[in-house]
Task: structure prediction
Amino acid sequence: MSVLVYIENWDGKFKKISFELASYASSIAASLNVPAVALSLGKVDNSELSKLSVYGISRILNNPDERFNALDNQAIAKAVAQAAQTTGATCVVLAHNNLGKAIAPRLAVKLKAGLVSAVNGLPVSTEPFVVKKMLFTGKAFGHIEMLSAVKVLTLSSNSFGLAEKQVTASVEFFDPEMVDADFHIQIKQTNKVTGKVLLSDADIVVSGGRGMKAAENWAPLEELAALLGAGTSCSRPVSDEGWRPHSEHVGQTGKIIAPNLYFAFGISGAIQHLGGVSSSKVIVAVNKDPDAPIFEAADYGIVGDVAKVLPQFIEAVKEIKS
Ligand SMILES: Cc1cc2nc3c(=O)[nH]c(=O)nc-3n(C[C@H](O)[C@H](O)[C@H](O)COP(=O)(O)OP(=O)(O)OC[C@H]3O[C@@H](n4cnc5c(N)ncnc54)[C@H](O)[C@@H]3O)c2cc1C
Result:
């Protein structure tokens, strides 16, 4: 028996979310008293793979076939299912990101497993197996009992954190039965955005709403983001207006993020917006309306005009940095 965690790589490297998943899987494995096994598919250096042992993974399975790097979720689901069967996994953990969300249901079907997506903490109990997740756009927590023999979980990012627990690990070649027809996608060319912090990776996010008034007012917000090494996001009306790209829209119908620090400039704090950001560890809001609902969700609030507060903010950050 085991707990299996699928660890995605980005150009052969792992990210913080990879180690958070490893930490989470090994903590569940410890409570079930079984080993934590990680599966990595695609080309990843051995030195990178062995970093997983810092987070309690004692067995690391790897297949360096570069066709897995195309992130074909059907092919990956097939390989993860075989790894789960080989290792006798009773619990399989994936990231709650684009790839994890695509693999998890396929995997659940293949393994005849129950699936709970976007869990945000360790199981409340393992016998019975009860997990916790947010419901109703973050307004409530649900405790869900999983009755199936095998459980598939996707973990919300930044909800568990890193838990170091160095163990001795073996790195093993894993050889799933795959045929050419399993690989449906071939990447011909990749164009990467450079010099910007990806929203999904950002520890700090600077966000603007309709209170920013116009697209041309975003320069100070971007300056602040650059100073803080932060990602930028926006409310939905802002991207609907075309002031910012849709890729920056956060909320119920946009991206769901959980940075350590979230700045909301000129955002009212509608429930649909908070649904995408309320798991942020600290929320700082600037709004000219003292009754704006964002202040109920915020840890720190400034009542004021963004046009005046933002430049002062930037100066203060520059001063601290110098
Ligand atoms: C089904 C559905 C799904 C939705 N999904 C999303 C979603 O995913 N994400 C999302 O964001 N929204 C979503 N919405 C829209 C949501 O309901 C709100 O309308 C939206 O979040 C409001 O955006 P906002 O706060 O930028 O704008 P507003 O509500 O117009 O708020 C602007 C705020 O800026 C303040 N302000 C104005 N001028 C200044 C100034 N000079 N200085 C400081 N503060 C100022 C105002 O006091 C106000 O609080 C959804 C709506 C529906 C119905």
In short: Residues 209-211, 235-238, 251-254, 266-268, 270, 272-273, 276, 286-289, 292, 305-307 surround flavin-adenine dinucleotide (CB under 6 Å). The first strand starts at residue 2 and ends at 7.
